[in-house]
Amino acid sequence: MEWIMGGRRHGLIRARKAAYYTQESLAYELDLNPGTVGDWERGRSEPLPYKRPKLAKLLGVSREELEALLREGQDVASAAPSLAPLPPPAAPVPNSSAAPADAAVARLTALSADDHARLTMTLSDPHRYGDGQVIALLGRQLDQSMHDDGLLGPARTLPTVRAVLEVVAALAREARPSVRRPLLSLGAQGAEFAGWLHRDCRDMPGAAHWYSQATEWAQEAADLPLQGYLLLKKSQMAYDQRDAVRLHALATAAHTGPWQLPAKVQAEVTQQVARGLAMLGEPLADVERHLDQARSWLDRAMDTSDSGSLSSHYSATSLTLQTASCYIEAGKPRQAANLYDQAIRTPALSHRDQGYFLARHTVALALAGEPDDAATQGLKAVAIATTTQSQRTTRELERALGTLTPWASRPGPRALGEAVRAAASN
Fold first, then answer.
1. N or C, which end of the chain has less CB nearby within 10 Å?
2. Could you tell me which CATH class the domain 10-82 is placed in?
3. Are 253 and 261 in contact (CB under 8 A)?
4. Confidence of residue 3 (pLDDT cuts 50, 70, 90)
């Protein structure tokens, strides 16, 4: 018989899901075995005291609230069935049993009361009322959410994006074919954005889920360029996971697939192939040849307006920053640091991206043996990572601290280490 020290901690489960963590991704953030979080939620064990401050921060609760959630499961095994049921999954897909999406409409913050009324009416009969105007309303909300992400970070943006996707899934079940295809194409772009937000939260299982959903919707919509674009995004997630072989394979598939990609997407794909070659240890000349090809694609996009809606954000600054990443992977951190210094000075970056690339600059400077300059950039990145809650930025800062270990006693690196630890404990 399975040993249980208490009842199932439903409140702890709800807090985890509200913070958009799976058991696996929360365990990853806490450097634990994935099964450990499951044991906490089943009442089999409790977090060690030194883990609790970070756990409370990740769940977005106070330490007192966390203690209450942990006490919930003590000595109540027999009472567990009477607890309130868990809410339905927040990530419905077409043809699944999901709660009505009416409540999701209220979370679409970029829309007016009249827009909300229009969407609610459409949800009552998608076949009759679904049309291009409804798709435009959802597209407007996605555009606003992408803007919000750059200012506020992923945790504050995800609820609205998931509300859009819930509405898309509900409408798609009954929409007319002529409406369903463009609706699913929009949904695929939104699901790709949700995948990106989960990546920024360092929730790789969540990112993989949404990329898979985006691919399914893009295939149903017969949107070939979007399918190629999604391979690029999956390749970028492979970079987050330091999987060079998968990164290169996915980027190459995006480059050679049966679709005609907009020129900006081709530029980004070609750059990603270059990054894969650098990670695989291929000659620098091959890496730079692909980077030159990426610049040619980007020049073509600027000259001919062959850009499309995909990768519309991609610019010369974007390519410079990603070229710097290639030089880090090729073992040329000084060249990378110079490129970061050049690109970060431009006003094109969002607040969140400014923090992330400051952290990348910190890594490059640390690898180049410039500990004091690295610490200066790193402290700027900590301040932004704290306000945007970008876990990708925090991860890069942790990576930089590892490289700065030989200089840990110097004032700058020591201050950076203290700032990163303080940010993690708040």
1. N
2. mainly alpha
3. no
4. very low
